[in-house]
Amino acid sequence: MAVLLRSTSAAASTAGPSSALLATTFRRSRGCLLPRAAPQRRLYVARASAQPLEVCAKESITIPGRLGDCPFTQRVLLTIEEKHLPYDLKLVDLANKPDWLFEINPEGKVPIVKLEEKWIGDSDVITQALEEKYPEPPLATPPEKASVGSKIFSTFIGFLKSKDPSDGTEEALLNELTSFDSYLKDNGPFINGGIISAADLSLGPKLYHMEITLGHYKNWSVPDSLSYVKTYMKERERGVDWRMEGLDAKVCRMAVICT
Ligand SMILES: N[C@@H](CCC(=O)N[C@@H](CS)C(=O)NCC(=O)O)C(=O)O
Predict the structure, then answer these.
(1) Where are the domains of the chain?
(2) How many CA atoms lie within 13 A of 151 on its CB side?
(3) Distance of CA 41 from the midpoint of ligand 1 (Å)
(4) CATH class of 143-240
(5) Residue of 55, 56, 60, 109 with the most ligand 1 atoms within 8 Å of its CB, for mutation
(6) Tens digit of pLDDT for each residue in 176-204?
(7) What is the pLDDT of residues 213-249, one digit of tens each?
(8) I need a labelling partner for 130 at 20 to 30 A (CA). Which of 108, 165, 166, 168 fits?
């Protein structure tokens, strides 16, 4: 079972990154991964001796001091978790961005991770850099599968923003989800078959974000007929229930609570 050790600093949420970036320290000692996920997976011991990575993440807008719903941050945290790296989490209130945020990322966005004394922004860049610096366990998705499901998020945003029910944005999203459902049926349960890879860690949080946001704003949910997509989404949930105390559990639960 995953173990969560947590040390907090009350001042850290307002202090600058150099003095008290360490709002919360998470270290996990690794048990197993997802229950049905991957016969090929090996067990890895947490890199307890590694220096914790510093990670800036979105703070919940509804529950101060808790992780917010940001699929990009979730992707980065899930990647760090899968690589068994300890990390210190700094929650950033994006409604009141501190000055230091712009110093370390002029775009003023999260996630941001400090790697080799350099702050890196953007989940694509961060996860790539993590893969290069910490190649074990490998998470790269084979190139021919890397774009599977990659249009779902943009079509979801199109539908979310749409005010005209007949403008085709819902259909576009359904088309993408249907195509992903067929892919999973033939190739699943994950994008790279039996192994969770980077593409899942990117897509999984986005699907949760989509389901919750569209449920809230449009009373819409993924149709039951897309059973492989439904199961794929629950796969992460099963991991949550199973791990109980792992941070990825918290990440996924936050997606439910904070939208
Ligand atoms: N392309 C970026 C997107 C990051 C992003 O949009 N983060 C949001 C939070 S979910 C943010 O920081 N928003 C603040 C803002 O746009 O001002 C990535 O992949 O990391």
Answers:
(1) 5-139, 143-240
(2) 11
(3) 32
(4) mainly alpha
(5) 109
(6) 999 999 999 999 988 999 888 999 999 98
(7) 899 899 999 999 999 999 888 765 554 322 223 344 4
(8) 108
Q: Is 70 in the pocket of ligand 1 (CB under 6 A)?
A: yes
Burial class (CB in 10 A: 0-12, 13-18, 19+), 79: buried
Could you report the per-residue pLDDT of 17-71, keeping only the tens digit for each? 433 333 333 333 332 223 333 333 344 445 555 789 999 998 888 888 887 878 8
User: Of residues 32, 56, 70, 258, which has the active-site annotation?
Assistant: 70
Between the alpha carbon of residue 115 and those of residues 119, 128, 169, 209, the distances in Å are 6, 12, 39, 27
Q: Which atom of ligand 1 is nearest to the CA of 126?
A: 20
Report which ligand 1 atom has the smallest distance to the Cα of 122. 20
Topology, domain 5-139: Glutaredoxin (3.40.30)
State the Cα–Cα distance between residues 179 and 172, nearest whole angstrom: 11
- What is the number of H-type helices and E-type strands within the chain? 9, 6
Catalytic site includes residue 70? yes
Transcribe 183-222 into DSSP letters: HHHHH-SBTBBTB--HHHHHHHHHHHHHHHHHHHHH----
Q: Is the CB of 16 under 6 A from ligand 1?
A: no
